[in-house]
Amino acid sequence: MTRFLALVPLLLAVVIGGFFLWGLNPERDPNEIPSVLISQAAPDFSLEPIPGVAVPGFAREDLLNNDKPVVVNVFASWCVPCRAEHSVLTNLVEREGIRLFGINYKDKAEDAARWLAELGNPYERIGADTNGRTGIEWGISGVPETFIVGGDGTVLYRYVGPVVGDVAIAKFRAALTQAGVLGTGAS
Amino acid sequence: MRYLSIVLVLFALIATPTLAVEPDEMLSDPVLEARAREISKELRCVVCQNQDIDSSNAGVARDLRLLVRERLVAGDANDEVLAFIQARYGDYVLLKPPFKPSTYVLWFAPLFLIFLVFVLGWRVLAVSNRPRSSHALTREEEAYADQVIKNYQKGDRE
């Protein structure tokens, strides 16, 4: 018993030290909030199209029965990082042929239409979430956020913040590859 | 100078935590509004994570406050409102972590550590209170020690 108790401080030091080591890992983001949506069915919502934008609206039904995963991007014209992210998403659509749906979060129709006219519209469908309620259904904490939704409507991945910069893009591409949207050989 | 200090003390007395709840969000029914405040204190703002949604100015926090009130008006109990938001934002949205297998470590670790401190403390005290076992020298050891001392003293004089 005494022998064992003598080992307790060492044991505690190892446990607490291990915890510190985990906590100091630069890869770990302490602000990250795990999404409850991952591996769950996409939430229920139904959004009207943006008036003056030529793509249809967007509801949960559009995420079911797709033959490959789709990317759902939450964006707004007032969101500055979205502007930077826009070209990345456009590239993915044009070069890799991913399917991109948009949720236009708390935006004015004319602002959103102008923004899309200026930057181009890579979205296949855009739903106007004028009161932010669909954003809550998706559990977002801000814009932009990007989800990968499987063909059967299961949410596979969530990226919080703009997919901008090499690290973020590599991470997002890896998730796309894992979801089976990109081939493994694609660079 | 004295007046100034009195004024300062009075200001300190009336200081209350600032709320971000805006008048247009509040419900006209004071009972429901009070319940909404109670629920809001339990909910973490997902943008500024150490604030409850009542004291956060973030857009999502405002939306959640409105949602809480909407659910209350629709007739939800406090628990149901919390469950509704928890279903969308996960356990992280609750400022008080739920008690379930994945959080047992969180809830029990402090108790376990206190228990450990008591056990260790008791052991240490028990050991230090125990009468020291006397290590009296045997006759041979006594003789040997004498010899050593003598030799040493001799060597010292030379």
From TrEMBL, chain A:
Keywords: Cytochrome c-type biogenesis, Disulfide bond, Redox-active center. It holds the Pfam family Redoxin. Transmembrane segments: none annotated. It is found in: Cell envelope. GO terms for biological process: cytochrome complex assembly. CDD domains: TlpA_like_DsbE. PROSITE patterns: THIOREDOXIN_1 (PS00194), THIOREDOXIN_2 (PS51352). It comes from the Bacteria. GO terms for cellular component: outer membrane-bounded periplasmic space. GO terms for molecular function: disulfide oxidoreductase activity. InterPro entries: Periplasmic_diS_OxRdtase_DsbE (IPR004799), Redoxin (IPR013740), Thioredoxin-like_sf (IPR036249), Thioredoxin_CS (IPR017937), Thioredoxin_domain (IPR013766), Thioredoxin_ResA/DsbE_sf (IPR050553). Residues 36-181 form the Thioredoxin domain. The keyword Metal-binding does not apply. Belongs to the thioredoxin family. DsbE subfamily. This is Cytochrome c biogenesis protein CcmG, thiol:disulfide interchange protein DsbE.
Automatic annotation (TrEMBL), chain B:
The keyword Iron applies. Residues 9-147 form the CcmH/CycL/Ccl2/NrfF N-terminal domain. Keywords: Heme, Iron, Membrane, Metal-binding, Signal, Transmembrane, Transmembrane helix. The keyword Flavoprotein does not apply. InterPro entries: C-type_cytochrome_biogenesis (IPR051263), CcmH/CycL/Ccl2/NrfF_N (IPR005616), CcmH/CycL/NrfF/Ccl2_sf (IPR038297). GO terms for molecular function: metal ion binding. The chain crosses the membrane at residues 104-125. Residues 1-20 form the signal peptide. Pfam families: CcmH (PF03918). GO terms for cellular component: plasma membrane. Belongs to the CcmH/CycL/Ccl2/NrfF family. Possible subunit of a heme lyase. This is Cytochrome c-type biogenesis protein. It comes from Pseudovibrio denitrificans.
